[in-house]
Amino acid sequence: MQFSREKVRAELLVILGAHAQAGATVKDSSHLVGDLGIDSLGVMEVIADIEDKFHLQIPDEALRDVDTVESVIRSIEKRLENAGRLQG
Amino acid sequence: MSVYQPRTVAQAIEDAAGSTKNGYRFVDENSDAEPFFSHGGVERASARFGGAMQAMGLKKGDRVALILPDNADFVFAFLGAVRAGIVPVPIYPPTGLGKLAGYLDNTLHIVERSGAKVLITSSEIKLMLGTIAQKAPALQKVVAVEPVRTAKEELKPAKVTLDDVCFLQFTSGSTSRPKGVTLTHANLAANVRSIMQLGLGVRDTIDSGVSWLPLYHDMGLIGFVIAPIYHKNTITFLPPLLFLKRPARWLDAISRHRGTVSFGPNFAYALCVKRIKESEMKGLDLSSWRVAGCGAEPIRAENLRAFAEKFSSVGFSEKAFVCCYGMAESTLAISFSKLGTGVNVDTVEGDKLWSAHKAEPAAEGSERAAPIVQCGGAFPDHDIQVFAPDDEEGKTPLGEREVGEIRLRGPSVMQGYWSEPDLTKRAFAGGWLRTGDLGYLANGLVHICGRSKEVIIVNGRNYYPQDLEWEAGGVTGVRKGNVIAFGTMKPTGDRERVVLVFETMVSGDEAINKLKGEVRTAVQQGIGLTIDDVVAVKVGVLPKTSSGKLQRGKARELYETGELYMRTSARDLDRLDTVKELAKSQLGYFRTALFGTKGED
After folding, report:
1. Are B597 and A60 within 8 A, CB to CB?
2. Number of domains in chain B
3. Closest among B351, B230, B416, B210 to B293, alpha carbons compared
4. Secondary structure (DSSP) of B246-281
5. Structural domain contains residue B16
6. What does the alpha-carbon distance between residue B397 and residue B377 come to, in Å, rounded to a whole number?
7. Is A17 in CB contact (< 8 Å) with chain B?
């Protein structure tokens, strides 16, 4: 399955929106834990959702990319690109 | 039935070595292969690790610190050390999102205090540890585990007796720095017998366990690494992070491998209810699961009932629940609810519990009815009694249904804390181990109400912080599970003032003030207590232990010194440090971030 950069961003925002604390606004610069209030269990849930949505397997080593929304977008794009599934 | 003969862990490993059908299976997230080591294979692999440690110059009685995120590495290294008479000191791996500086500080404390000569870890974590070797005088080297896996050193026979120290279990208390619980082989033999034979009726070679529990924690280590060796059971280990990411994998492993025994803290069962989808339940068969243990944190009957309700359609029986009470100072287990009876709740008058220290059965329809989960009675050869917390001599046990501190004695009780004579002295009262837990006995069965050190006393009445936190956690805008309540004599010193601190995403003075008001009202209405000070803080500010437990004592300290107001979120404080360190290493960010991701203290 192919994803464009716009699609990656849009899908990720949907996922994060579902896990962020009420009242938090999801921005590219938002930090998942500090700004969106997603706790450690929540982050694991986000990872599972990302794997399901983008048909990726994310190794634990990649989890250090979990910092800001933007860094997560980059990480997903990189993985899709390596798999030849990133458009544009 | 044969007469019980206690055996050392080292002996049990050798006794199990003839077993070729049973052993340890290690599930790997990224591969369908599930490497299986028969108990004979475990014996051989542990001999290689033990031999390698001897070749590093370690001798009987020396301590070796282990920071090994890989389950198989940990099991072989731990058992290898034990067989060589070397004392392993398990340390939790670094947490990804957390404060690295805090982690290093804690690790250094454990390494120093244990006097470990060698620290074995993965090459990735070795990089993160940096200069730790220079700071701990007794530590001679930090060794990467990868070359040890293929070491060909032979284990030189070491005489290990029941009175020898088997390992040190460092516990992160809610109020103090980690202390090394010193456990002998005799302690382990006694507790393993209590758990396996007397508590769970485990059948040699037949019962089969499944565990995702971290192995640096007593429940995973003793319950699923050590105890099964004595009974030659097969255990399937999952990486803890895999469970947190995909809880269904836990139940899937039980289903596929016909697991009969598996344990988890309360939150694990709640997580399964919340996260496992209908589609993931297809094909599951949990009918083999006869012991579903729940312990290590307060048990909420409603969480367990919800689990039973959800998974009964795939064969789970509510009667499989075993409610457990235990602590590292008692090796692992103190008491288990009776096998096959499920969750037993004693409903008492909450009011009387707090005001009169009495657990009076609640009248029907009582508004103050408080459900207290029953955790069974003392194991044979062990004694449990309840004492007034200020009864330093431990001479006068309280009566039936009187609330006080639970105390224990018997062969499972530790010798003391390693190199901590003062703390050891304080841990006992007249030969009884002080658990620090408040509870009562009814028909000889243990019921836990809370931690005595943390009880808030207002006008002679006891309030349990958990109850205040539970009420506050129900208010929209408050981060559930991120609320701490405590009492403080400061600043006035004349009476205990009640403080409640919660994390929130809400910002803006007006919104915050409104939220604080709602929290006050919720606690007032739910418990009848007026909070003196409600404090709202940002996410990541509240202190937690490595296993994610709230640190009430630490929070009080921060409040009293005014530091709480200055703390911003964990990431602001330590972000640069973390980024720098992580950039240097290849370490999996989360591989090691198990329960908590912030606020290591």
Report:
1. no
2. 2
3. B210
4. -THHHHHHHHHTT--EEEE-HHHHHHHHHH--HHHH
5. no
6. 16
7. no
Answer whether B435's CB lies under 8 Å from B406's CB.
Answer: yes
Of B275, B539, B570, the CB nearest to A37: B539
Q: Which of B482, B506, B572 sits opposite A23 (nearest CB)?
A: B506
Number of A–B residue contacts, CB under 8 Å? 96
Could you tell me if B300 and B362 lie in one domain? Answer: yes
Write out the residue range of the structural domain in which residue B394 sits.
Answer: 261-454
> B344 and B417: one domain?
yes
The Cα–Cα gap between B385 and B394 comes to 9
Name the residue facing A22 among B245, B503, B505 (closest C-beta): B505
Number of other CB atoms surrounding residue B157 within 10 Å: 9
Q: Can you tell me the distance from the alpha carbon of B131 to that of B137, in angstroms, rounded to the nearest whole number?
A: 12
Q: Are residues B363 and B432 in the same domain?
A: yes
**Does residue B246 carry a pLDDT above 50?**
yes
3-state secondary structure (DSSP) of residue B488: strand
Interface residue B212 vs chain A (CB under 8 A): no
**What tens digit of pLDDT does each residue of B260-291 get?**
999 999 889 999 999 999 999 999 999 999 99
What's chain A's length in residues?
A: 88
Q: Both B446 and B356 in a single domain?
A: yes
Domain boundary among B398, B427, B454: B454
Q: Of chain A residues 68-87, which have a CB less than 8 A from chain B?
A: none
In a domain, B60, yes or no: no
Q: Per-residue DSSP letters for B499-536?
A: EEEEEES--SHHHHHHHHHHHHHHHHHHH----SEEEE
- B390 shares its domain with B480: no
Which pLDDT score is estimated for B571?
39
Cα–Cα distance list, B188 to B11, B60, B227, B310 (Å): 12, 18, 8, 36
Distance CA A20, CA A11 (A): 14
Count of domains observed in chain A? 1
Residue B254 CB partners (closer than 8 Å, separation 6+): B210, B262, B286, B288, B289
Smallest Cβ distance to A21: which of B479, B569, B596?
B479
pLDDT at residue number B405:
93
Range of the domain at A56: 3-87
A40, A43, A48 member nearest B246 (Cβ): A48
Distance CA B274, CA B550 (A): 22
Q: Which residues in A lie closer than 8 A to residue B505 (C-beta atoms)?
A: 20-24, 36-37
Give all strands (DSSP E) within B226-349, no chain letters. Answer: 234-237, 261-264, 291-294, 321-326, 333-336, 345-349
Kindly state the helix (H) or strand (E) to which residue B482 belongs, with its residue range.
strand B478-488
Residues B409 and B330 in one domain: yes
Distance from the A75 Cα atom to the nearest Cα atom in chain B, whole angstroms: 13
Residues B353, B485, single domain; the answer is no
Range B71-75 average pLDDT? 97
> Which residue from A minimizes the CA distance to B241?
A44
Mutation target among A21, A46, A75 for the B interface, most CBs of B within 10 A: A21
Interface residue B31 vs chain A (CB under 8 A): no
The complex's ipTM works out to 0.91
Predicted local confidence at residue B120, as pLDDT: 98
pLDDT in tens, B141-191: 999 999 999 999 999 999 999 999 999 999 864 445 789 999 999 999 999
